[in-house]
Amino acid sequence: MNLQYLQSFYITVKCNSISKAAKNLHLTQPGLSIQLQNLEKELGASLLKRSNKGVELTEEGKVVFDYADTLLSIQGNIQRDLKDLQQNRPKLMIGSCKSVGEYALPCSIYTFKKLNKEVDIRMEVNSSANVIENLRKHTINIGIIQHDSKEDDIVTQTIISDELLLVGNHSDSPKQISIEELKEIPLILREKNSGTRYLIEKALKEKGLNMQELNVVYDLNSPEAIKSSILSGKGFSFLPKLIIQQELKENLIQPVEVDDLKIPFEYYVASREKYTFTHYEQMFVDFIISSKRGFC
Known about the structure:
By secondary structure, the protein is an alpha/beta fold. Helices cover 44% and strands 25% of the residues. Keywords: DNA-binding, Transcription, Transcription regulation.
């Protein structure tokens, strides 16, 4: 397959315009049209519907677009990795769930970097689901996730154990409530594709409770924003103990026990099934798994 034609197709869809895509690619419109026609001819399928409103993917085009996203990403990674090898400077590409990436992991990365100054480290913070998708797209090689995804193409190793705690503002929160009372209190939760949300739904389902029975006032995609909401008295939330240690120590946040509801979980290092860590990647994985170091 001609990757240049595939890239032209991909950019055309992104721009939703042949004229805009041609300008972006530094091609004439007829030249771009010929590339798109050649790609369709090569694949034996019509990929785009052209109209005055722009371009629209056919069903075949949707399939090709999804593969193009992955293939072009891999192509970019190959070029980047070859350039890194030529520069003889090792790199770590890490993706982390927000519960770790916004709190404990930066400290671990800083310590590892001090011990290995020759390594360049890049970290992306995302939801656990997106971390797994980025592993599949080869944009990262090491993932830190909040629960074991049990995906066939993803391998995991346990880092540390943690627990989700229901917490509220320390000044006016009860120390214990029932499952029935849990349905009434205002809850601020993480977004639906987050690891935290998955763990909450799973634990409540085991108690015969579904999310629709809860009084969820709003969702936020940032643990820090949720903490701010709690501290200002806007509601309660389930948060990992790891990220609220300071607030608990300073008596700013009050843990609230819910009958016998416990939500333990583990953090994992995740990688692609057939991927072999480089020397420095393995060093980093060993570093954060080590019981003597782990997260700061």
